[in-house]
C-alpha cells in the first residue's frame, strides 16, 4: 500500500480525504501549509503520492509543486492538484509543472480510488518543468472553459508545454485553435521567444515558399533585397502554421525536409540557416481522409501529429457557453468604456440551446452585436433575433461544418440543431415544437431520445 501526503488547509476536506485514503488501505500523511509540507518532504522516505491544494497559507500550491520538483528524489512523485475553482491558467500551470492530475473539489470516493489505482500502476516519471506563472499578463490569450471537454484540452496543453514536441491542433472553424497555440507558447520554455503565425490558406501557392523560407536578392522578379522567412523569424520560439491542410503538396515535401533537418535554405541562395523552432500546426480538415485521397503527405502527418490536440466544438461544451458569453460582454464593456451588459434568463436559455456552427468565434460576434444594438443594460432573447435570421438566410447553403462529415453524422447533427431550435422557439412546449417541425409529438419524443436531447433549461 502507499503513503499519501495530503496538503490542504481546509480541515474538513483534509480530514475527509484522510479517512478515504485510510479506508482504501493506504497510509495518509497530513500538512496544513506549503511550508509544513516542504519540511516533511525533506525527511525520508518520500511519499508515493501527493494531494496538493492550490490555495494555501504562505506558499501556494504551484510554488510548492515547483519547489518539490527541484528536491532530490521527489521529481517523479505523482502530484494531484486540487482546487475549488478551476481556471484555464491554474489547470495548464499545474500540468506544465508535471502534475499527474488536476481535480476540482469536491472529489468523490470512487474518483479517489480510481485515481490512486492509476497512479500506483503507472510507475511513470513525471517530467521536471520550469517555472510557470499562474497569473496571465494583461490581454494575454486565455483558453477559457470549465467543461470536462475543455479541462481535458487544458491538461493536455499543459503537458505539451513541458516539451518541445510538434503539436497538431484540430477542430472546426472558430473553436480557438490559434488561441490554444498562443497559450501553449506562453506556457512553454519558449515564451521569451517570438510567436510567428502563418495562415497557409491565405498566401498564394507561388509565394508560400518565399514566405516560409525567405529569399535572396534577385531570387525572382521583385526580390530587391534579402528577406528572412517566417521560419527564421521564429527562431527560439514557435511557428504556428494555421490551415496546414491547405498547403500544396509540393510545399508539403519541402516543409517535411525542414522538419527533418532543422535547416532552411532561402530561395535563390545556397545559404543553409539552422533553426530552433517549435512547430504548431492547425487545421479544420480531416488530414487522415486527405492522406487517403492523396492530397496530404502521410509522412508529413506523422511529423506533425506528435502531440495531437483536438478543440471540441461549442455544442459539445455547453457548460462553457454562458461563462464565455459573460466574459465577452465584460471584455466589450472594458474595451469600449461602456456600461456592462448582462443576459436575461430567456436569453441564457436561448444561447445554451443553439448549435453554434461558428463556435466560439460566432458566440463572440453575437455578444458584440447584441451589446452594441440593445437599448438597455439587460440583453433579452429579442436582442438575439438575428441568430434566427441568419439561420433562415442560410437555409439553402450547406455549412462547412456539415459538408465534410459522413452523411449519417451530418444528418444527425442537423436534426439535433433543428429540434433544439424548435424547442427554444416554442419555449420548451413539446407539442408546439412538434408542430413547428411538422412531426407528431411521439415522433419528437423518439427522436429526442435517440439523439440524447433534453429540453433547454
TrEMBL record:
Coiled coil: none annotated. It comes from the Bacteria. InterPro entries: AAA+_ATPase, AAA_lid_NorR, CheY-like_superfamily, Homeodomain-like_sf, HTH_Fis, P-loop_NTPase, Sig_transdc_resp-reg_receiver, Sigma_54_int. Residues 143-372 form the Sigma-54 factor interaction domain. GO terms for biological process: phosphorelay signal transduction system; regulation of DNA-templated transcription. Keywords: ATP-binding, DNA-binding, Nucleotide-binding, Phosphoprotein, Transcription, Transcription regulation. This is Two component, sigma54 specific, Fis family transcriptional regulator. It comes from Caballeronia temeraria.
Amino acid at each position: 500500500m502507499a503513503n499519501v501526503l495530503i496538503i490542504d488547509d481546509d480541515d474538513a476536506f483534509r480530514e475527509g480525504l484522510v479517512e478515504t485514503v485510510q479506508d482504501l488501505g493506504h497510509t495518509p500523511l497530513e500538512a496544513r501549509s506549503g511550508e509544513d509540507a516542504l519540511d516533511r518532504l525533506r525527511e525520508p522516505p518520500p511519499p508515493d503520492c501527493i494531494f496538493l491544494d492550490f490555495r494555501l497559507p504562505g506558499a501556494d500550491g504551484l510554488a510548492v509543486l515547483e519547489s518539490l520538483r527541484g528536491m532530490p528524489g521527489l521529481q517523479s512523485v505523482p502530484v494531484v492538484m486540487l482546487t475549488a475553482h478551476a481556471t484555464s491558467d491554474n489547470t495548464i500551470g499545474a500540468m506544465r509543472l508535471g502534475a499527474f492530475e488536476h481535480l476540482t473539489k469536491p472529489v468523490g470516493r470512487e474518483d479517489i480510488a480510481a485515481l490512486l489505482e492509476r497512479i500506483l500502476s503507472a510507475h511513470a516519471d513525471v517530467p521536471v518543468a520550469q517555472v510557470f506563472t499562474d497569473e496571465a499578463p494583461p490581454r494575454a490569450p486565455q483558453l477559457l472553459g470549465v467543461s470536462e471537454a475543455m479541462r481535458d484540452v487544458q491538461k493536455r496543453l499543459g503537458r505539451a508545454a513541458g516539451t518541445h514536441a510538434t503539436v497538431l491542433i484540430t477542430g472546426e472553424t472558430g473553436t480557438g485553435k490559434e488561441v490554444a497555440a498562443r497559450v501553449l507558447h506562453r506556457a512553454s520554455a519558449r515564451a521569451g521567444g517570438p510567436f510567428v503565425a502563418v495562415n497557409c490558406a491565405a498566401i498564394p501557392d507561388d509565394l508560400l515558399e518565399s514566405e516560409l523560407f525567405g529569399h535572396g536578392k534577385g531570387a525572382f522578379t521583385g526580390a530587391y533585397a534579402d528577406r528572412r522567412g517566417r521560419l527564421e523569424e521564429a527562431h527560439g520560439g514557435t511557428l504556428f502554421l494555421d490551415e496546414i491542410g491547405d498547403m500544396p503538396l509540393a510545399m508539403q515535401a519541402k516543409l517535411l525536409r525542414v522538419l527533418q533537418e532543422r535547416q532552411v535554405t532561402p530561395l535563390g541562395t545556397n545559404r543553409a540557416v539552422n533553426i530552433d523552432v517549435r512547430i504548431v500546426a492547425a487545421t479544420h480538415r480531416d488530414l487522415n481522409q486527405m492522406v487517403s485521397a492523396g492530397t496530404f503527405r502521410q509522412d508529413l502527418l506523422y511529423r506533425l501529429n506528435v502531440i495531437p490536440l483536438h478543440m471540441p466544438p461549442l455544442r459539445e461544451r455547453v457548460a462553457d457557453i454562458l461563462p464565455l458569453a459573460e466574459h465577452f460582454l465584460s471584455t466589450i464593456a472594458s474595451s469600449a468604456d461602456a456600461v456592462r451588459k448582462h443576459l436575461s434568463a430567456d436569453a441564457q436559455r436561448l444561447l445554451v440551446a443553439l448549435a453554434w456552427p461558428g463556435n466560439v468565434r460566432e458566440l463572440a460576434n453575437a455578444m458584440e452585436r447584441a451589446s452594441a444594438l440593445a437599448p438597455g443594460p439587460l440583453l433579452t432573447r429579442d436582442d438575439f433575433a438575428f441568430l434566427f435570421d441568419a439561420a433562415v438566410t442560410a437555409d439553402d447553403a450547406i455549412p462547412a461544418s456539415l459538408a465534410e462529415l459522413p452523411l449519417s453524422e451530418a444528418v444527425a447533427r442537423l436534426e439535433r440543431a433543428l429540434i433544439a431550435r424548435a424547442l427554444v422557439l416554442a419555449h420548451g412546449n413539446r407539442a408546439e415544437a412538434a408542430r413547428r417541425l411538422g412531426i407528431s409529438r411521439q415522433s419528437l419524443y423518439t427522436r429526442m431520445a435517440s439523439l440524447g436531447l433534453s429540453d433547454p433549461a
